């Protein structure tokens, strides 16, 4: 920190036993104890504006005393020096020319500032709560802001590499088990090194991954991760404007941002929202139940176990022949039989298994023991961190009324509506194409999916792995899939609703690509895999299922996967597959949201005005004939004629500027070169308006002209020759693959239907 210019009006004489509280500055030699300043509640120094005070403080009249900085009006501690070495009321803080130190009642040192480069002239408590040691030139020698505990305030910067450490409790300031770590790209919460939450996971967090973060700060209107000397926002959470905001790592493991107004605190932001995601949230033996929408509840051991009386706590089985149930690290999981697997502990991605009574640890890998498929209760009795709830097949038969109500189907199997015993409505997916790897790999894969939580991803509530039966139980999405709503004959989706759907889908993909511990590439983004709830909240489904394919299907996945019309060109050009593959597919979905029709639906340009088809008006330069909509969108973008692309069912309830945003973002997403496509965080920013719209590279969109030309040729031939319907349909939905001969680039076409893989 820079110099602090001050001229003391009066030279202050300090006597250690005077009990006088001073304003802004004190000078060495000086000492203070709670006993000496008991009339001022231990306060010996106040900031000039009276907002903060420094005190020998005992929280809630306990016997532990700490040198603390306190927000006066709310009586909230924002920093403490000797948090791991509390002293009695007669222990002292001493200010000398060498720095600050704290000693216990017997004079034994328990805390001190590090060695300083020059002698201390004064101690300053400034107006934002920073305690600063100054030299004779008013230069900073040491600042409390550089040594944060569990809280930062407005005016304070938490640098990359720094941490916040939770307190053990509300009245025990010693370091707890939870840490907030700041990386160059994210804010991370950890428990004993295990990451359980990231700021980028939160739907309220806007992320711009084009810059490297340098520090985190909080101001009147937001929490920000900043780079380029504070000029660029890497992550931002907008808050209700307030003159006093703090960001704190709570003793419970939650990262909370709150503001003080009037006489009370208002919680502005919390992460994670779901308390059950916090390891040890319910203590040593507690089991956590609940969700992001309900308050978590904690209970003790399962019915077949009892609380251990040993020092290490935990749950012991009622039967002396079963191995003990240890205290798990996440308080989540499913029940398992003692004859099978003892427990699983999650590490960064997936943790290690204790099989029976022998430990077999292997980093970042789950190995599940054998399951007895002949027993319907082969997984009862144990709670496994990492796996969602396990259902018996018979229970799901009853829930679905013997799989009576079919609500969807795809490459992985059929989906049925079900009602669980607690009246929860669910969607039950019967996996019909699982490979021969068996339950081990199936459970390992769903452990990954089950630990992926985001407001825009369909939640996996449980699973069944019984014999050769494989079923997944998802939350029920009452409005069904986007394709049925967008392309069906029901009420039209309004423009704001389309924006909400686009944003929700984009946020879900952004989380899969960078918000969870393992990067997940969806590989099959399409309207059928975007499910809707009330108020058109969009959630992605079928993510992370690629490893559950049968060998026949997975052989396709080794080279290409997806659905015709959404398949990125790199699948066919031997280019590397990355998250930019999903970006391409999202761009195609965005174009369909604009028009209300399938991009590959053959429509004559003269009947694009037919409102029953949801087509846009046509003035395409390609003249009359079949139109490939992505090419039509490119042509209208070149001419600035965006309203001609809009679903006519909207009847003018959308502006050209709103459509332009969708079209420009979509065209940026579908560029042939993956490196030119924006990442999904940038897509979210452009749709929200926080990032300026990019201009697509027209050279990287020329491939659309080849697809469009082939589309038109195949469609024209098909109109005259019905017997060629199937062949031409495949050809009309093909992608060009490039072959370079000399200086010429030739395009050949492979049917995307033939190579699309499971869906």
Structure report:
The protein has four domains: about 20-145, Agglutinin, subunit A, CATH 2.90.10.30; about 150-270, Orthogonal Prism (Agglutinin, subunit A), CATH 2.90.10.10; about 395-475, 2-Layer Sandwich (Phosphorylase Kinase, domain 1), CATH 3.30.200.20; about 485-740, Transferase(Phosphotransferase) domain 1 (Transferase(Phosphotransferase), domain 1, Orthogonal Bundle), CATH 1.10.510.10. Helix 4 (about 495-515) packs antiparallel against helix 9. Strands 34-38-39-37-36-35 form a six-stranded mixed sheet, sandwiched between helices. Strands 1-4-5-6-7 form a five-stranded mixed sheet, with no helix packed on it. The protein has twelve helices and 43 strands. A hairpin with a 7-residue loop joins strand 16 and strand 17. The chain is of the alpha+beta class and about 750 residues long.
Question: Can you summarize this structure?
Answer:
By secondary structure, the chain is of the alpha+beta class. 17% of the residues lie in helices and 27% in strands.
Question: Strands, helices and their partners?
Answer:
Blueprint: E1 22-23, E2 25-26, E3 30-32, E4 43-46, E5 52-57, E6 66-71, E7 76-80, E8 92-96, E9 99-103, E10 109-112, E11 122-125, E12 131-134, E13 140-143, E14 151-153, E15 157-159, E16 163-167, E17 175-182, E18 187-191, E19 194-198, E20 205-207, E21 215-218, E22 222-227, E23 232-238, E24 245-249, E25 255-261, E26 264-271, E27 287-289, E28 297-299, E29 305-307, E30 315-317, E31 343-345, E32 352-355, E33 358-360, E34 389-390, H1 393-399, E35 406-410, E36 413-419, E37 425-431, H2 439-450, E38 460-466, E39 469-475, H3 482-487, H4 495-514, E40 530-532, E41 538-540, H5 551-557, H6 580-595, H7 629-639, H8 656-669, H9 680-688, H10 703-720, H11 725-732, E42 734-741, E43 744-751, H12 752-755
Parallel strand pairs: 1-4, 34-38
Antiparallel strand pairs: 2-11, 3-8, 4-5, 5-6, 6-7, 8-9, 9-10, 11-12, 12-13, 14-24, 15-21, 16-17, 17-18, 18-19, 20-23, 21-22, 22-23, 24-25, 25-26, 27-28, 29-30, 31-32, 32-33, 35-36, 36-37, 37-39, 38-39, 40-41, 42-43
């Amino acid at each position: 920190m820079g110099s602090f210019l001050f001229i003391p009006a009066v030279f202050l004489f300090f006597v250690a036993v005077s009990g006088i509280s001073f304003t802004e500055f004190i000078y060495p030699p000086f000492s203070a104890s709670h006993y000496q300043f008991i009339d001022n509640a231990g306060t010996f120094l106040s900031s000039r504006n009276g907002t903060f005070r420094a005190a020998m403080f005992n929280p809630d009249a306990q016997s532990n005393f700490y040198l603390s900085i306190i927000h006066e009006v709310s009586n909230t501690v924002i920093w403490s020096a000797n948090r791991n070495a509390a002293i009695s009321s007669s222990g002292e803080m001493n200010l000398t020319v060498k720095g600050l130190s704290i000693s216990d009642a017997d004079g034994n040192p328990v805390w001190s500032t590090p060695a300083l480069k020059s002698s201390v002239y004064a101690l300053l408590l400034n107006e934002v709560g920073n305690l600063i040691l100054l030299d004779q030139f008013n230069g900073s020698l040491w600042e409390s802001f550089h040594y944060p505990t569990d809280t930062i305030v407005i005016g304070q910067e938490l640098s990359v590499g720094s941490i916040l450490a939770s307190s053990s409790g509300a009245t025990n300031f010693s370091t707890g088990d939870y840490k907030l770590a700041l990386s160059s790209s994210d804010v991370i919460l950890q428990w004993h090194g295990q990451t359980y939450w990231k700021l980028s996971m939160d739907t309220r967090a806007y992320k711009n991954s084009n810059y490297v973060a340098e520090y985190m700060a909080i101001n009147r209107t937001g929490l920000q991760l900043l780079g380029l000397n504070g000029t660029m926002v890497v992550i931002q959470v907008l808050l209700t404007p307030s003159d006093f905001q703090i960001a704190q790592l709570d003793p419970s493991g939650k990262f909370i941002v709150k503001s003080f107004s009037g006489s009370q605190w208002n919680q502005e932001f919390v992460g994670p929202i779901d308390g059950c995601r916090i390891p040890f949230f319910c203590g040593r033996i507690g089991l956590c139940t609940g969700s992001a929408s309900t308050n978590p509840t904690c209970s003790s051991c399962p019915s077949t176990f009892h609380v251990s009386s040993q020092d290490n706590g935990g749950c012991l089985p009622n039967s002396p022949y079963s191995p003990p149930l240890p205290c798990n690290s996440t308080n989540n999981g499913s029940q398992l039989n003692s004859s099978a697997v003892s427990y699983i502990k999650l590490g960064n991605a997936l943790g290690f298994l204790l099989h029976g009574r022998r430990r077999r640890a292997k980093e970042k890998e789950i190995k599940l023991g054998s399951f007895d498929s002949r027993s319907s209760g082969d997984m009862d009795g144990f709670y496994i961190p990492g796996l969602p709830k396990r259902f018996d097949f018979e229970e799901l038969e009853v829930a679905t009324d013997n799989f009576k109500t079919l609500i969807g189907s795809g490459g992985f199997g059929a989906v049925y509506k079900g009602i669980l015993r607690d009246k929860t409505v669910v969607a039950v997916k019967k996996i019909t194409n699982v490979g021969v790897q068996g339950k081990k790999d199936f459970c390992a894969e769903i452990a990954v999916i089950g630990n992926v939580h985001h407001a825009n991803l369909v939640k996996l509530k449980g699973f069944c792995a019984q014999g050769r039966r494989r079923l997944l139980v998802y939350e029920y999405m009452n409005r069904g899939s986007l394709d049925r709503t967008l392309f069906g004959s029901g009420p039209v989706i309004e423009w704001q609703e389309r924006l909400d759907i686009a944003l929700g889908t984009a946020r879900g993909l952004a989380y899969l690509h960078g918000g969870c511990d393992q990067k997940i590439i969806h590989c099959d983004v399409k309207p059928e895999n975007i499910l809707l709830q009330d108020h058109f909240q969009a959630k992605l489904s079928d993510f992370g299922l690629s490893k559950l394919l049968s060998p026949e299907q997975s052989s396709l996945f080794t080279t290409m996967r997806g659905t015709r019309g959404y398949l990125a060109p790199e699948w066919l050009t031997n280019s590397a597959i990355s998250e930019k593959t999903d970006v391409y597919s999202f761009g195609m979905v965005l174009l369909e949201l604009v028009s209300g029709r399938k991009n590959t639906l053959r429509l004559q340009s003269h009947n694009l005005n037919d409102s029953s088809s949801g087509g846009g008006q046509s003035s395409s330069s390609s003249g009359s004939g079949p139109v490939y909509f992505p090419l039509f969108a490119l042509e209208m973008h070149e001419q600035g004629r965006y309203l001609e692309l809009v679903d006519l069912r909207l009847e003018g309830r959308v502006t050209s500027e709103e459509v332009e945003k969708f079209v420009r973002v979509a065209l940026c997403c579908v560029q042939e070169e993956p490196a030119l496509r924006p990442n999904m965080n940038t897509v979210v920013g452009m749709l929200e308006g926080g990032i300026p719209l990019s201009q697509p590279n027209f050279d990287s969109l020329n491939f659309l002209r080849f697809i469009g030309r082939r589309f038109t040729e195949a469609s024209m031939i098909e109109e005259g020759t019905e017997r060629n319907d199937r062949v031409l349909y495949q050809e009309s939905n093909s992608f060009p693959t490039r072959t370079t001969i000399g200086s010429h680039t030739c395009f050949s076409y492979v049917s995307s239907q033939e190579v699309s893989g499971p869906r």
